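Table S2 (continued). Query chain:
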Amino acid sequence: MTLARMDGMNVLDPSCEILASRAQSGDKQALEQLAERWWSRIRQWTFVEFGERPLMEDVAQDCLIKLFERIDRYDAHRPFAPWLRMLVRNCARDRLRKRKATGVMIELTDHRDPSRDLDLRAASTLVIQAFSSLTARQRQVIDLCDRQGLTSAKAAAELEIAPATARVLLHQARKRLRLKMLEDHADVYDLIRETA
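Corresponding output:
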């Protein structure tokens, strides 16, 4: 069996399923190991869902709490990663519903690291802004295909959408990212228009 790698760990590594099974039996250390192992991936998934860094942190914390509360609902005969991904999606949907119901606007703050090079910070901010301009579905598909290396068909299966829909979303997302980056850099945009 070929093992896919994600964040330096084997996603299909049976130890995730074994740890989850132990956690269901009341092993708190196994649950803590699971949380540590998946924390960075949970944060990435929540960013994909929202595209907003402050909201991402809150929802990632919510997901961690849900993991502790709902580990008993995990089916040990199935892979752990898709179950956790669905838990993250559900937490994100719950937060969006609450946000819409209350009408509360979330104030975004700048979380850039002042010790980094100015050009790197500016580029990072532009990429995040461009990524944030995508719809949630577009962010999900581009994350699965471009960051995690899945085919559009596999991304479609994970998102439970038609393969053709995944391809269209991926095309739209890539096009929108290109245009957004060009719009934000008028000098580059003008140069491309002149040479086209």
